[in-house]
Amino acid sequence: MIDSLLIANRGEIARRIIRTAKRLGIRTIAVHSEPDENMPFVSEADEAVCIGPANPVESYRNAEAILAAAKSTGAQAIHPGYGFLSENADFARLVEANGLVWVGPSADAIAAMGDKIKARNLMAAAGVPVAPGTQDPVASEDEAVTAAATIGYPIMVKAAAGGGGMGMAVAGDEAALRTEFAKVGAFAQRMFGSGDVLLERYFPRVRHVEVQILGLADGRVVALSERECSVQRRNQKLVEEAPSPAVDPELRRRFLAAAVKAGEAVGYRNAGTVECLLDPATGDFFFLEMNTRLQVEHPITELIHGIDLVEEQLRVASGEAPSFTDVPETSGHAIELRINAEDPKRFLPGPGQVTTWVEPSGEGVRVDSGYAEGTTVGMSYDSLMAKLIVVGADRDEAIARARAAVAGFAIAGPKNNLPFFAELLENDEFLSGDYDTAIVSRMR
């Protein structure tokens, strides 16, 4: 097993990784920006190194500074968490070139899945269902219009190098397509360094369902179970639950089989997620993307399977067998609520100093938090402050525990979206389980 681990991240995911590493007897090293000096993850690590100012480009995205910290502290391995450099193939190669263990999939797998066009074509060749769309980057507005005539409107215009719900727009006709094509291309070039755009059929009523996979050290790829991620604002997830209320045993079998095919197509190792769109009217699903890292919502899978996914990641990276012989069966129902520093109506950022922070507790309640009283939520990083996770014997019990936990979570200082969750947990559409990715817009 790895004996020392540098966590190239911050906030709740850094604390989450540190917790498992310490349980396994692994020495932990935190890297942090200057304003993060007093954050909980820094004090909880065995060692800490300041790697630069607030701007992530100069700190959490600064590969040279992170590698220098690893060398100065004698770290054996680097865990990237999610975001920042977690899906950067060049960084993964650099880590290994410097003789360190990369806790994640191979750089080749990251690169293959990082370009949506290449990923889409690779999945289609492997027999994974993909939505009707383009196989190559669309070179011009006129070419986009010609392709759309074959695919059919409405059209999703997507940045080929995008991820996490960014760089996407919907066009209902030719005029909108011409406008959105130019906007998405410019955004993609600015944000991702590539202006390549692809087109896919847009499904007005769709659910977002994903499957957790693990590529094991012996070469096998296993699928755990699915997660429902359809409660979103601006294509960004707010709530996840597992198992999905839309997935019956036969559909689950198809989902898991497709996810294994996807992992095997790139020789996947470590934890990853195969994201799909599900047409609830037909039961058809289509590959969306593969996230080559640990997901924000991984705790709900842990709770229904009774495993620690960070431990499994470290086992794979160490060349060890998983903690289980057969994939554990699921038990119960889990829900995760992303507690963000944003106003609960328009979801606009609301940073500030935390003057009150009281976490809920009780049976089936887990809080993975990045902040505490006295810390400050700034504008330089993601607005996620904590993840409120609950598990119950069934969905009804999980929802009841979520309601109580939301009521018992006290935050003052930054704005927060707890009132939105209180509203959602009483919403008839959500309670029925028959909802889709437009549920938040209908609530607003």
From TrEMBL:
Enzyme Commission no: 6.3.4.14
Residue ranges annotated for the Biotin carboxylation domain, each copy included: 1-444
Pfam families the record matches: Biotin_carb_C, Biotin_carb_N, CPSase_L_D2
ATP-grasp domain span: 120-318
InterPro entries, per database record: ATP-grasp, BC-like_N, Biotin_carboxylase_complex, Biotin_carboxylation_dom, Biotin_COase_C, CPAse_ATP-bd, PreATP-grasp_dom_sf, Rudment_hybrid_motif
Alphabetical keyword list: ATP-binding, Biotin, Ligase, Nucleotide-binding
Uppermost EC category: ligase
Name of the protein: biotin carboxylase
Organism: Paractinoplanes pyxinae
